[in-house]
Write a structure and sequence with these properties.
This protein is mainly α. The protein folds into 2 domains: 2-114, no CATH class; 175-306, Tetratricopeptide repeat domain (Serine Threonine Protein Phosphatase 5, Tetratricopeptide repeat), CATH 1.25.40.10. Helix content is 84%, strand content 0%. The protein starts with a helix and ends with a helix.
């Protein structure tokens, strides 16, 4: 670009100089001719006046051409300055782009390292979850056996050595076992009432207390499920994942198993790579296709596919 402008300006200068030479030569010829005429014969005043006007006009044109040449040189100089400035800006932009590309390469490398570290961390978390499950299962089995033995000895009434049959019918009384069952059901319903009201922190405390007292009750499966959901609602996702897994293993025929697997998948999607969640969602769809949990799992899979 600067080379083309320079060639054009050089050509313009040559044309101006050539024109200036022609005008000067013409003026010189007119003066010479006038001088010769004045030496040879006396010219008329009108002719001399006309020649003077022509000379004055020619001088004015020469001045105008000279001014135009100066203006052209100034404009050319300004154009060259602008081109130089634009070149400097382009060089600065190229430098900035090069710097940004270097930073992008560094960030990309760091992201790859972080992804690798996160995958390794997820594997470690899954291993720890399996270990915890084994420990919890072993502890719960030992504790439940001890509690069942102690409670049977307390609840079962003493059998008398001799039984006497009376003709008069005794008034009906509630046995100790029935009282225990009634008390157990009352504590369960109290915990579930808080759960239905959305008071998950209080419900969690009461369900834990209930399961510690009645680990082998008929409501133990449901209580474990609601306890797991309470932790999930309180965003204790690692704990809820562990509890859902434990629940599905201990109570495989419980009506809440499908929803527990689905919520376990949601917990994984909140914490780690969605690949774990996808596996659980597909399991729900395959094993419990007609359930509400399966419909929710299909929706969750579609959302993950869009991400």
């Amino acid at each position: 670009m600067p080379k083309i402008i320079k060639e054009r300006s050089t050509a313009a200068k040559k044309n101006i100089i050539h024109y200036f030479k022609i005008v000067s030569l013409l003026s010189l010829c007119i003066f010479t001719f006038s001088f010769l005429l004045s030496g040879c014969a006396q010219m008329e005043p009108d002719t001399i006046h006309h020649l003077k006007i022509q000379v004055r006009n020619l001088n004015k044109k020469v001045i105008d051409l000279s001014q135009n040449s100066t203006d052209s040189e100034q404009a050319l100089h300004q154009t060259q300055v602008n081109v130089a400035n634009q070149g400097a800006k382009i060089a600065s932009i190229k430098s900035n782009l090069s710097s940004l590309y270097g930073k992008y390469e560094i960030i990309s490398h760091d992201m790859k390292l972080l992804q690798t570290e996160f995958r390794n961390y997820r594997i470690l978390v899954n291993k720890e979850l399996i270990k915890l499950l084994k420990k919890e299962k072993f502890k719960s089995s030992v504790i439940s056996k001890q509690k069942i033995t102690s409670k049977i000895s307390k609840i079962m009434p003493k059998v008398p050595s001799k039984i006497t049959v009376k003709k008069i019918k005794p008034t009906p009384k509630i046995s100790a076992k029935q009282l225990a069952v009634k008390k157990e059901l009352k504590e369960y319903n109290r915990a579930k009432t808080y759960y239905k009201k959305g008071l998950f922190r209080k419900a969690l405390v009461l369900f834990k207390k209930y399961l510690n007292k009645y680990p082998q009750s008929q409501k133990a499966g449901d209580a474990n499920y609601y306890k797991s959901v309470s932790n999930f609602k309180l965003k204790n996702y690692p704990v809820s994942i562990l509890e859902f897994h434990k629940f599905t293993r201990l109570y495989p025929k419980n009506k809440h198993v499908a929803m527990a697997i689905y919520l376990q998948g949601i917990g994984f999607s909140k914490l780690s790579d969605p690949s774990d969640a996808i596996i659980l969602f597909k399991q729900v769809i395959a094993d419990y296709g007609s359930s509400r949990a399966a419909a929710l799992a299909k929706t969750a899979l579609k959302k993950l596919a869009k991400q």
